[in-house]
Amino acid sequence: MESTRRRTWARCIRVALTLSAAQSGCSRDARLAGKKVREVKVGTVTDQGLTLGPLPANADDAAVEEAVKQVVFVLLRAIRDDVEAGGDQAARDAALDRQFAVAAPQRIYALQARVTPRMVDTRDEAVHKTVITWAPTLAHYVDQLDDDWLTANQRMHVIASRTEAKGEAPDRAVLLPLVDPHDPTAPPRTARIELTHENGYWRVCAVAFSPRPVPTVTKAAATQPAPPQG
Length: 230
What we know:
This protein is α+β, with helices and mostly antiparallel strands. Helices cover 42% and strands 16% of the residues. It has one domain. Strands 3-4-5-6 form a 4-stranded antiparallel sheet, with helices on both faces. Strands 1-2 form a two-stranded antiparallel ribbon. A hairpin with a 2-residue loop joins strand 1 and strand 2. Helix 3 (61-85) packs antiparallel against helix 4 (89-101) and helix 5 (105-115) crosses helix 6. It is globular.
């Protein structure tokens, strides 16, 4: 069962990367015409009252879980702001900047080169065409991308992840249950946000949906994190 889930997840990532690599035309210039292609650098990010700084590769599991959840929370807030910006291009660009700030450029580029070797772009182009798919992927569930860190923290579940490339530390994924707003009786879907340890930081390399349900875990009140200092 677990091996089937891993194969299904890998297929989801391959499809997402292939679509992002093949979008909008045959030539590189056509695909990126008029787009702001950012040079993504991994570094400390301060957003939503949280500071997403470096973490050693040998950090304990509790520290890693806290770090990856914080990165995902910042990403989801930026995605929500992106979707809710609508036609306000300045607001959308600002929200996109925040999504790029928590991306893992080297891993994204390596994944594209592995999955679509005949369609490889420059690193920045590959990152651009991946990150801009994240908000559309989750847009249907935008009202469930929580406003506050405490609520988001309790809804997220961190698991070990197996990906193609080897990072500085074992990869992680965050699972998030999402209910169809148009059909609350339908089984929840599971968003899966994949993270890797790149240049000393935990950063996001993929956003998709997973066949794996989110485990039901009850945490003691004493284990709940303190709110961020804003």
